[in-house]
Amino acid sequence: MSDVTVVVEGGFIYVRSPWNADFVKEAKEDFSGKFVNGQWVFDIHNEKRVREALMENYGCDGITTETCTVRVTLDADDDSSCGPITVCGRSIARARGRDSGATLSPGIVIIEGGFTSGGSVKNWTTKVKNGHAVVLIRDFPGVVARRLVAKGKEWISIEQGVPSINRDELEQERSRLLTRLAEIEKLIPAVQAEQFSA
Q1: Is there a smaller number of Cβ atoms within 10 Å at the N or the C end of the chain?
Q2: Taking a C-beta distance cutoff of 8 angstroms, is the pair 67, 59 a contact?
């Protein structure tokens, strides 16, 4: 997913990504992330876990992208009170009020059925129209899709997948790791000297 960018700088990891309820929850609760000026900011010590969470939620960790298109069947149980209908944290369609109708989220294609709004003025609902819809979700995390299919979840199937690697990001990551390795190499003799003098 090209909308995910990761920058490592000055002891922090900076992440820009589309809204995903599951990632937002992890960012706040598991990694003590702060949302500042439109991006998430994490301590560099959490980099590995943050990249794993990005791959899990977006199919992209800033270096490797592994997404697919999935076909998902939704029913009335997927209706959402005062919020969007989501699949694995990804917004599918969103109403804004009882009479607003529903707007599709980016990357969603309707195959059957559709979405609408309902409920009351205060407790409006984003609804699956007539209790049935089939959609294609583009750029869905491949690891999540395969796991759900392997568990026998009949409401999801994989249409296609295209793994790719961002060469520029990979080169930047290699450069950063080589710099850090050089720093470590300089520290090792000093640590050894301290151990022998103790």
Answers
A1: C
A2: yes
In a domain, 184, yes or no: no
User: Does 55 lie in the same domain as 123?
Assistant: no
Q: Quick one: 17 and 56 in the same domain?
A: yes
Nearest to 62, CA basis, from 13, 131, 128: 13
Nearest alpha carbon to residue 161 among 77, 70, 80: 70
pLDDT for res 112: 96
**Residue carrying structure tokens 């076909």:** 71
In sequence order, which ranges of 34-89 are alpha helices (DSSP H)? Answer: 47-58
**Range of the structural domain that residue 9 is part of:** 1-62
- List the 5-9 sheet strands across, edge first: 5-9, 12-16, 39-43, 34-36
Residue 44's Cα: distance from chain center in Å? 19
- How far apart are the C-alpha atoms of 192 and 98, rounded to whole Å? 69
Distance CA 81, CA 27 (A): 24
Q: Which segments in the chain show pLDDT lower than 50?
A: 1
What phi-psi label fits residue 4: left (phi over 0), alpha (psi between -120 and 50 degrees) or beta?
beta
Alpha helices in the chain (DSSP H): 21-29, 47-58, 142-150, 167-197
35 φ, ψ (degrees, to nearest 5): -95, 110
